[in-house]
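Our platform keeps sequence and structure together, in a single record for each protein. Such a record has a labelled line for the sequence and another for the backbone structure tokens. Nothing more is needed to write down the fold, since each code stands for a local backbone conformation. For reference, a complete record is included directly beneath this paragraph:
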Amino acid sequence: MSQSPEPKAPAAKAQVKSGSHLERMFAAGHFAVTGEVGPPKSCSSKSIREHSAAMRDSVDGINLTDNQTAIVRLSSIAAAVHVMAEGCEPIIQMTCRDRNRIAIQSDLLGAYSLGVRNVLCLSGDHQCFGNHPQAKNVYDLDSIQLIRAVRDLRDENLFVSGEKCRFNPKFYIGAAANPFADPFEFRALRLAKKVAAGADFIQTQAVYDVERFAEWLRLTGDMGLHPRVKIMAGLVPAKSAKALRYVSTVPGMRVPDDMIRRMEAAEDQEAEGIKICVETIQQVRELPGVAGVHIMAIAWEKVVPEIVSLAGLLPRPKLESAGGGNAAAGA
């Protein structure tokens, strides 16, 4: 089994914000790995538990999508309970599409009381893409305002209204970034706004065009963002050339033509897709500012351990227990 490289020397000891495993991995200087599970369109926990168990020893946290593509699914907060039952750390996604500020803050308090310590703040896919296109979106807050709301609740004990919260949730705050959408120069500025609002870590859109990703990193580095936020490169392993070609047509995505031709020429396209994903991990690890990878094996979760192993990221580093348990103090 491949051995994980020695961690980079951590910077001066930073204040603990949440005590989550993911936060402590970054603080220790380790290259972090997260996976993702999409809750089912049912009330069954079977698939969540199975995927979590399969990824348990390969990732440092598991994202749980929040009604992705605007399709009704088991809630990310309920799914988080099943992830924790399998011995994994959840990262719930919280979107602005479906909730006003009252519901968002209520869900955050509820999630923390159940043991959730990581939250990824997102706008959410527009409802026209889902199975309830007539639904009314909310967007009472945008994603940057949501980040700020979570930070104020954590650091200042303040609700959005300005009222004090007696037992405030200590979340490790994440956000998303797309290095490939146009206008390109705006992408670094948008990241800067999210970092200023309080984002602790970033998970990016899927990286296929490493050259473009490296240029975005250069821009964000020139803005002094790298010491202030942990950037995780997003990766989506492709099963086929057809899937990769489809991705290349999605607005805000970039797939090099030679990568599509390589997949088309492969006898075993699934194996080639895994190989490309592993190679991409190895390439982005060498780029300044990259602190980890987020593997989104959509409907292909079983390959995550294989990818992590082939990339030389196993075994995952072990950390001492954070202590204090998961229950909210005084709750």
